[in-house]
From TrEMBL:
One of its GO terms (biological process) is regulation of DNA-templated transcription elongation. This is Nucleoside-diphosphate kinase. The lineage of its organism: Bacteria, Pseudomonadati, Pseudomonadota, Alphaproteobacteria, Sphingomonadales. InterPro entries: GreA/GreB_C_sf, Tscrpt_elong_fac_GreA/B_C, Tscrpt_elong_fac_GreA/B_fam. Residues 83-151 form the Transcription elongation factor GreA/GreB C-terminal domain.
Length: 153
C-alpha cells in the first residue's frame, strides 16, 4: 500500500490553535465592563474544572488566558460628567436624518447590535470630545452628525 494513503491519526491534520488576539492599545473599561470580564473568568474557570475532553479543555483554557489578561490590564475609567462626549458616555445624535443613541465603551463590552460601540470605532471616535449642539464631521461628510444629548452611560 502506498504511503500516500496511510493515515495514522487526525492529530497531524488539525489546525494549530493560536492565542485569542488582544486588541491593540489601552484596555479601557467601564465599571460594568470590568464586572463582565470578572464574570466571564468565573464562568470559564467553572468550565475548565468540569471539562474532560481535551480539545474543549484546551479551548476553554485559551479563552481563560485571554480574559485573565484583560482583567489584569483593565483601566477602569471614571464615569463621565458634563456635556462633553467621553469614554462611557451615552450620546443621542442625528445622523442622516435619523435619531440614534450609542454608549461608548471598551473593546470587550462593545455590542454594536445593542448600540454599545468600542471607543475605537469610527463613529465613537468622531463623537469623542463633542458637546451638545455640536456638528461633527463623519464618514467624509462635513457636519454629518448633530449631537443632541450627552449623559453618563
Amino acid at each position: 500500500m502506498s504511503v500516500a494513503f496511510r493515515r495514522d491519526g487526525d492529530e497531524e491534520h488539525l489546525e494549530p490553535k493560536f492565542e485569542v488576539p488582544i486588541p491593540p492599545g489601552p484596555n479601557l473599561v467601564t465599571v460594568h465592563g470590568r464586572q463582565l470580564i470578572v464574570g466571564k473568568i468565573a464562568e470559564l474557570e467553572a468550565q475548565v474544572a468540569a471539562l474532560t475532553e481535551e480539545t474543549a479543555l484546551t479551548s476553554a483554557k485559551r479563552d481563560l488566558r485571554y480574559w485573565q489578561a484583560r482583567v489584569d490590564t483593565a483601566q477602569v475609567q471614571p464615569v463621565p460628567e458634563g456635556g462633553i462626549v467621553r469614554f462611557g458616555s451615552r450620546v443621542r445624535f442625528m445622523l442622516g436624518g435619523k435619531a440614534r443613541e450609542i454608549v461608548i465603551v471598551g473593546h470587550d463590552e462593545a455590542d454594536p447590535a445593542h448600540d454599545r460601540l468600542a471607543f475605537v470605532a469610527p463613529l465613537a471616535k468622531a463623537l469623542l470630545g463633542a458637546e451638545v449642539g455640536d456638528f461633527v464631521d463623519f464618514n467624509g461628510r462635513e457636519e454629518a452628525i448633530e449631537v443632541l444629548e450627552v449623559s453618563a452611560g
